[in-house]
Design a protein that fits this description.
With 958 residues, this protein is an alpha+beta fold. The protein has 22 helices and 19 strands. Strand 4 and strand 5 form a beta hairpin.
């Protein structure tokens, strides 16, 4: 009992902060109690289930991941074999094969992780038998991947762009077609068209039966060639030689197609082997997860009971603490609130009664003392309020603006003397309690408001609405010439306080300033129109458009009923462009020897105004121009030469003045420049069209001649190689070499045949270069722009040109900066550039020298440089090395090997890639050829997720 009394006394004497600290301390202990209970319970659950859950979930995840990778690989495999005939082998390989290999690698990694997981010591006995299934699964994966690679290689043999049999067949087909065209055999051509139709059908369907039908036609075709009486022996041999190559390609295509189809079909059977293994692994993982869930549920039930008991205990303690706070603090605060409300309502006799020693007891005493002080203050304030009211009335009368106050019922409360002076005509009715509507109506009746004179009723309604719903300040014009700025605002009790300021002086200043601004605006409009004229005219170079725009802009600053521009052509002024009345005289010719107002302006180079054309002797009255009375003209001058006259006319006499004449002269100055530029542009366009026509004729001639030369040259090379082969294999071995003349003749024949073949191949290279250059210049070449690494192209080019070093003591070096970004380009064309530059460098470098290929990044470009230590290029030749058919050295004595088109082709290719190419050299010190390829802004993107191949230009049908 004594302890309870002691605790009550101790609690009563505690401050509110201390009471809250004690209560919240107990709350904190409860939270810690519940948290510790939950922690130990969850630790028990975690300890029991951690290893099992982790292993089982990881096993299930890896099984699903293996199945996912297998499905992705399967889809990529099907996409590759379905799409390569459509997009081409290279694009299909890049888009699907690399991704397929990545999926197989990830599939094997997941399988390896599963095997490691099921053999771990803490793995359940239920999962351990799956090790054998995983080993079988891995073997099936590797067998599937090996078979896929074999099938991809078969597709490469069939459809690769450079080395594929389909490409070889196309080349042989072109040669066969040209030969048949030259022989002019309609029957054979019809058979050939059937063959091409079947071949096109095969390219669409890849059907083996189509190839079999094609072989049947080939047999008939061969028999027709042998039986044809119109063909001589040489023609038959040439045709059969091409035919044998064509037939061999068809048989190889049929064989590869059968093999590819067989392998693709085998993949579906192979997939059936995976299904039982995958199903067993998934069932095993699911069963293990179910067992783990049952174990977790048993442990969780015990944890729930323990946590529920802790929560019940905590709720009981919380209820007791809430009761303690309510009794000790909340009731006392409610009592103080009631006292405060009574004081607020004016009941200053109310007293607070709290017997505790805490802050609430102190606040109770403060309330009681404050009530006594408020009583004293109210008495003092009532005395001071009377004094303040008197002073306020004096202050209102002393302000320079008129002030009037209306109550919520729109009755006048007060107004100052300044307001009375502003409204002297209604001063007799400006008394308290008068309605605002009465004052407004009296002002209208007595005519003190300017705007109300013409429309009293509507103006009354507008002002009344403005007064009852005040917004922004507004201006009001009085009938005696004064201007008032009126600002109305609502008071807190719903009344209206209006302040009126006399702004007559400001309005007069604004009027004067407005006049000045109008003058300035006219000048500014003139300047802006001239600027717009200069911008618009300089944007166009077509003479007719320029003339029309001049007259349109002139309309913005000069009023006219008609306007025109006359330009000199020989001994005449011709009206080239006109508007309105002047359009009737368009293209009219005025001889310069006549004395007219227009010729006067042209000859004197001075502007002219004719106030009344009917009083002007030099005025020519044209039919339809009788309405014209005033005319104005200004010369169009370039340097010291007058090129024409610009004119305006008006139906009003004496319409234009000197200011208008100055404006017209300024326009004439701007128009002269634009007209002169347009005339120059027309001359340039004419010259360019002539040059383009000549260049097109040249390109067409080269292309036609090259095509005509390539056909017989192909036959010459083919027969020469056949003759060489048969001489070497059949005739020369049977020829007795004992006789010196015979031996010398055989040697001479060999040498001559080799010269024919060598020169034929060089001529073929020349023709191909001419055709390539013609295609590039005409935009008909096919560009395959893809992201690529220039370092790989450098390596391939060095490997391709290494054969040129055979028998030479020349060092070929490579200097490539590491980690270079990729660029966008045509791989084969860029390789053509590098190989051409390397070949030139090796050709002009003596034994003991070196050729270096460098690659580095500079700013936002990749710089490629080919450096040699050869004989160098003279300055006079260096300026022309990129010109067509230009070769270094004396072509009569040095006999350079080449066509003179390699470097021009390189220049065209590099410039198509938005790059630059140039050369630096010194005689006897070597040469360096440079070219750059820009780095795209988006370097680093995933090529497999983009449209890697982009083709620009038109496909060459030849």
């Amino acid at each position: 009992m004594k302890l309870q009394i002691f605790l009550q006394k101790y609690w009563r004497n505690l401050s509110i902060n201390s009471k809250f600290r004690v209560v919240f301390g107990l709350f904190l202990l409860l939270i810690v109690f519940i948290a510790l209970t939950g922690f130990f319970a969850l630790t028990a659950v975690h300890t029991k289930t951690k290893a099992t859950i982790v292993n089982n979930m990881e096993f299930q995840r890896l099984v699903l991941e293996m199945d996912n990778h297998l499905q992705h690989a399967r889809r990529l495999e099907k996409d590759f074999f379905r799409n390569w005939p459509i997009v081409g082998y290279e694009q299909a390989y890049q888009e699907y094969v690399s991704a397929y290999r990545a999926e197989i690698i990830q599939l094997n990694q997941a399988n390896a992780e599963l095997q490691e997981l099921v053999t771990a010591p803490d793995t359940s006995d239920l999962l351990r038998p799956s090790y054998l299934n995983l080993s079988s699964y891995r073997g099936l994966i590797n067998l599937y991947a090996d078979r896929f690679e074999i099938a991809v290689n078969n597709v490469s043999e069939l459809g690769a762009t450079k080395s594929g049999i389909l490409t070889t067949l196309t080349q042989n087909s072109v040669a066969l077609q040209k030969t048949l065209t030259e022989l002019n055999q309609p029957e054979l051509n019809n058979i050939y068209l059937q063959m091409e139709t079947l071949l096109y059908q095969y390219q669409l369907t890849h059907d083996v039966e189509v190839m079999q039908n094609l072989l049947t036609i080939l047999t008939n075709f061969q028999r027709m060639i042998n039986d044809s009486p119109e063909l001589n022996i040489k023609q038959k041999e040439a045709l059969l030689a091409l035919f044998e190559l064509y037939e061999e390609n068809i048989r190889e295509i049929r064989s590869l197609t059968v093999e590819i189809e067989s392998r693709v079909n085998s993949f579906d059977q192979h997939m059936l082997l995976f299904e039982p293994i995958s199903e067993q692994l998934i069932i095993l993982a699911t069963r293990q997860v179910i067992e783990t869930q049952n174990s977790i549920e048993q442990t969780t039930a015990g944890v729930r009971f323990l946590l529920g008991l802790a929560v019940i205990v905590s709720l009981l303690l919380t209820a007791w603490l809430a009761y303690l706070l309510n009794h000790s603090v909340t009731k006392k605060i409610s009592h103080l609130t009631e006292v405060a409300v009574a004081l607020q309502n004016g009941n200053l006799d109310t007293q607070a009664h709290i017997d505790s020693a805490d802050e609430l007891g102190q606040l109770s005493a403060s309330f009681n003392a404050m009530a006594e002080q408020i009583k004293t203050l109210i008495s003092n304030l009532q005395t001071k309020a009377g004094t303040a009211e008197t002073r306020l009335a004096q202050a209102i009368d002393s302000i320079s603006e008129g002030l009037v106050l209306f109550d919520a019922a729109d009755k006048l409360i007060l107004c100052n003397n300044k307001y009375l002076d502003m409204h002297i005509k209604i001063a007799d009715i400006l008394v308290p309690e008068v309605q605002f509507e009465t004052l407004l109506q009296a002002g209208i009746t007595r005519g003190i408001y300017m705007d109300a004179i013409q429309r009293p009723r509507s103006w009354f309604e507008e002002q009344l609405a403005q007064h009852r719903h005040p917004t922004d300040p507004f201006e009001l014009q009085m009938s005696d010439g004064r201007w008032l700025l009126i600002s109305e605002n609502r008071t807190q009790d719903g009344g209206i306080c209006t302040i009126q300021a006399d702004i007559t002086a400001r309005k007069q200043a604004e009027s004067e300033l407005r006049q000045l601004l109008e003058i300035e605006q006219e000048q500014r409009q003139l300047a802006e129109s001239l600027r717009e004229l200069a911008v618009i005219l300089n944007q166009s170079l077509e003479l007719d458009i320029v003339l029309v725009k001049i007259l349109e802009e002139l309309k913005d600053v000069l009023a006219y009923d008609g306007a025109g521009i006359l330009l000199q052509q020989g001994d005449f002024l011709i009206l080239q462009q006109a508007t309105a009345t002047s359009e009737k005289f368009l293209n009219h010719r005025i001889p310069l020897q006549l004395d007219t107002v227009a010729t006067q302006v042209f000859k004197t180079k001075k502007p002219l105004i004719v106030a009344d054309v009917h009083d002007e002797p030099a005025w020519i009255i044209w039919s339809g121009g009788e309405k014209i009375n005033c005319w104005m003209g200004a010369p169009l001058i370039i340097g010291d030469e007058t090129i024409g006259v610009i004119t305006t006319d008006n139906f009003t006499t004496d319409f234009y003045d000197d200011d208008d004449l100055n404006v017209l002269q300024i326009f004439a100055t701007q128009a002269s420049i634009a007209i002169h530029n347009a005339q120059l542009f027309n001359d340039i366009q004419t010259a360019k069209e002539l040059a383009d026509a000549a260049n097109e004729a040249k390109s067409s001639f080269l292309a036609n001649v090259s095509h005509e030369l390539r056909t017989p040259l192909t036959s010459i090379l083919g027969f020469s190689k056949i003759i060489q082969k048969r001489l070497e294999n059949r005739i020369f071995p049977q020829t007795a070499m004992d006789d010196r003349k015979t031996k010398r003749a055989v040697t001479q024949v060999r040498k001559n045949i080799q010269i024919i073949i060598s020169e034929g191949e060089r001529l073929t290279s020349l023709i191909n270069n001419v055709l390539d250059l013609a295609k590039i210049e005409s935009g008909k070449i096919e560009w395959r722009m893809v992201p690529l690494n220039l370092s790989d192209i450098i390596d391939q080019s060095l490997a391709a040109t290494s054969a040129l070093l055979t028998g030479k003591n020349i060092k070929l070096e490579r200097d490539v900066e590491p980690n270079l970004p990729r660029v966008i380009g045509d791989e084969h064309r860029l390789m053509q550039v590098i190989i051409n530059l390397l070949s030139n460098a090796i050709k002009f470098t003596s034994d003991g020298g070196s050729v270096t290929c460098c690659l580095k990044k500079e700013a936002n470009e990749i710089l490629v440089s080919i450096i040699d230590t050869g004989m160098g290029i003279p300055d006079t030749e260096l300026l022309h090395v990129f010109e067509k058919f230009r070769q270094i050295g004396d072509t009569l004595t040095d006999k350079p090997q080449g066509t003179g088109l390699g470097l021009p082709i390189c220049k065209q290719i590099v410039e198509h890639h938005s790059g630059r190419i140039w050369a630096e050299s010194a005689v006897e010190q070597g040469s360096t050829f440079f070219f750059t390829i820009p780095i795209p802004d988006h370097v680093g993107y995933d090529v497999s997720k983009t449209d890697a191949f982009r083709t620009y230009g038109k496909r060459d049908e030849n």
